[in-house]
UniProtKB/TrEMBL annotation:
Coiled coil: none
Keywords for the protein's UniProt record, in alphabetical order: Glycosidase, Hydrolase, Signal
GO aspect biological process, one term: carbohydrate metabolic process
Name used for this protein in its record: Alpha-L-arabinofuranosidase
Cleaved signal peptide residues: none
Organism encoding this protein: Clavibacter michiganensis subsp. insidiosus
InterPro entries assigned: Glyco_hydro_43 (IPR006710), Glyco_hydro_beta-prop_sf (IPR023296), Ricin_B-like_lectins (IPR035992), Ricin_B_lectin (IPR000772)
Length: 637
């Protein structure tokens, strides 16, 4: 974004507040998987996009204008159009609880292993003049979090926005945009060395200023600096001119050697490298990502479909490939027209074998009580899928990551082999074998879990042919073959799912975790949501109970279970920890958008976030099912 003219600011803010008052709901369905092309735009209302491809999925974040950091996840670019916008972090702390702009998602090494860092701009409700960079850190290696707030990286109270990480010469740097001191007061790009991903140290140096005519259209602006690196060369790509004009555009700073915090170590392009064209206006504030096979670099940017689209919510996220000339310089080309088919990034259609991020589930047959597993723990394509002993381990061959395809289906990724559940040869006949195979982005590898009535069981249908997973001849023996068959309505075709190992449960609305106040061990202590801190009262184990349901046990009080207070059937009845009886049984319902609904086995009502609040301490209760985001949750490792 991000320069906002002070004139007309109040009117713009009122419009944005009105628009952000609507709660995010389920994403629409579409058919996106396996296509050879995609079209732009990818995300409507998608200003300042950031993206990474990691372990089989794209992860994208855009400006939200409110107090939430919202992520979309999909195995294809086209899938981002329908991927559910899921809150991974929200903040109600005064001074950093409004106007979320310009997120930047980066994977960095930490003392405890790889972690994801989201640097974004947030400030105070009611004005844009108090915007500052903020940093959150993932608990593990999953870009979806959960996340913990780490701090403000720039150690001043000056307005600072559009932060990004640069790794160069074995050091970590932060680049961002702010105004230079009076009397010039130009919105410029800055750079500083970092001691960790949330702390800038040393001098805060000007990296570039808007001095050329192409950088001063509307207003003089340099902002949105982001690194591009290839074959030992480094560029900072930045946005120039006022974001409200059709001439917002990209320029480059090429690193020429020496100390990176000195402007003299960088050479600015003679003119813009990516400007309006083909009916696409104001292309800027971008990020780069690598194709799934690592052979291509792509540019994700925002732009308007109209010359008067402005600097608010008309901007959409778009992608196209960056090529390189004989001298190794990047060639950005011209924006590709809206709706034009573009070949998908290389490798997107597979074969991909990736340790997809997410919580592991056991898939348990109702008739036998055995788990869906890979015979002998084979890692080969074609490894037979059978029923067998439940390993009760997150990385066992009997554990599966239920990974949404962003258009209503799931791929079942084996947690031990990283291969996906597959219908052999895309067969359509009864008896076609279920096996594992590398991801090929076809419908034969996509599955539709569907609840049976109001019970805790599911059928799991193949998307390509609508036939369901079936245990051959209804055997109860370990090693019994699993295949597909027309629906018969028997217990051999019915399955329950339960998370494996200690997990966290977070709200899709707030990004905040299940939590017991003060990690109390007392019977009757209420369930609330709270910012993730990694405490024992934010860690839960799931155990099987009758009817395909589960019990949910806090690690801080493992002999107790979460249940509806006194077995009430009333709306707003509190959820508390207590005896692991009938009132503590929950059905897990996987939803088409990848979220989970928890339904009380006693009342048939859904676990609900009171008033859809993003505040710490908001109560979790039961309520009549409304299929809204207040009743959607994610289970994370």
């Amino acid at each position: 974004m991000k320069h906002i003219r002070r004139t007309g600011l109040i009117g713009l803010l009122c419009v944005l507040i009105t628009l952000t008052g609507v709660l995010t709901g389920p994403a629409p369905k579409a058919t996106a998987i396996g296509e050879a092309t995609f079209t732009n735009p990818l995300i409507e209302d998608g200003a300042d996009p950031t993206i990474e491809f990691h372990d089989g999925n794209y992860y994208a974040v855009v400006t939200t204008w409110d107090n939430r950091v919202v992520m979309r996840k999909a195995p294809t670019l086209e899938g981002l159009k329908t991927a559910a916008p899921t809150t991974v972090f929200s903040d109600t702390t005064p001074g950093r609880n409004a106007n979320m702009w310009a997120p930047e998602l980066t994977r960095l090494n930490s003392p405890t292993g790889p972690r994801w860092y989201l640097m974004y701009t947030m400030g105070t409700a009611g004005n844009f003049g108090q915007q500052h960079l903020q940093v959150i850190e993932s608990a593990g290696d999953d870009p979806m979090g959960p996340y913990t707030y780490k701090g403000r990286p720039i150690p001043t109270d000056d307005w600072n926005i559009d932060g990004s990480y640069l790794q160069l010469n074995g050091e970590l740097y932060v680049t961002w945009s702010q105004f230079t001191p009076e009397p010039n007061r130009l919105q410029s790009n800055y750079i500083a060395k970092m001691s960790n991903p949330w702390t800038a140290t040393g001098p805060l140096n000007v990296l570039s200023q808007p001095t050329a005519a192409w950088e001063r259209i509307g207003e003089p602006v340099n902002e949105g600096p982001v690194p591009l690196q290839k074959d030992g060369k480094t560029w900072i790509v930045f946005s120039a001119s006022f974001c409200g004009t059709e001439d917002y555009q990209l320029g480059t700073l090429r690193y020429t050697g020496g100390d990176p915090v000195l402007a003299s170590s960088w050479n600015k392009s003679a003119g813009p490298v990516f400007s309006k064209g083909n009916g696409v206006f104001g292309p800027g504030h971008n990020d780069f990502f690598t194709s799934p096979d690592g052979t291509q670099i792509w540019n994700l940017y925002h732009a308007n479909a109209r010359a008067d689209g402005g600097c608010a919510r008309q901007r959409s996220a778009r992608a196209q490939q960056v090529t390189f000339d004989a001298a190794g310089e990047p060639v950005f080309g011209t924006p590709i027209a809206t709706g034009t088919p573009i070949a998908v990034p290389s490798g997107e259609r597979g074969p991909i074998t990736a340790a997809v991020e997410g919580a592991s589930f056991e898939v348990v047959n109702r008739n036998s009580g055995l788990c869906l597993t890979v015979a002998g723990g084979s890692t080969a394509n074609g490894g037979d899928v059978v029923q067998g002993a439940c390993g009760n381990a997150a990385r066992s061959a009997s554990s599966w990551i239920l990974d949404p395809t962003a258009d209503g289906a799931y791929r079942f990724v084996n947690a031990a082999t990283s291969k996906v559940l597959d219908s052999a040869g895309c067969g359509t006949a009864d008896g076609t074998d279920a096996r594992q195979w590398a991801w090929l982005a076809n419908a034969c590898q996509q599955w539709l879990p569907t609840p049976i009535g109001d019970g805790g069981y599911l059928t799991i249908a193949n998307r390509a042919n609508q036939k369901v997973l079936d245990v051959a001849n209804c055997t109860t023996a370990a090693g019994g073959d699993v295949r597909q068959w027309r629906p018969l309505g028997n217990a051999c075709q019915q399955w329950s799912i339960r998370p494996v190992g200690p997990v966290s449960v977070v709200s899709a609305q707030s990004g905040k975790s299940f939590d017991v106040p003060g990690c109390s061990t007392a019977t009757g202590a209420p369930l609330q949501q709270y910012s993730y801190v990694g405490s024992s009262c934010q860690s839960y184990a799931f155990t099987a109970t009758t009817g395909g349901a589960v019990q949910i046990r806090p690690a801080s009080a493992s002999s107790l279970c979460l249940g509806v207070n006194a077995g009430s059937t009333a709306d707003r009845a509190a959820v508390v920890q207590g005896a692991c009886g009938t009132s503590a049984a929950w059905r897990i319902v996987p939803l088409p958008d990848g979220a989970i609904r928890f339904v009380s086995a006693v009342s048939g009502k859904s676990l609900d976030l009171d008033n859809c609040s993003t505040a710490d301490g908001a109560a979790l209760q039961q309520y009549t099912t409304f299929d809204n985001i207040c009743q959607r949750f994610r289970i994370t490792r």
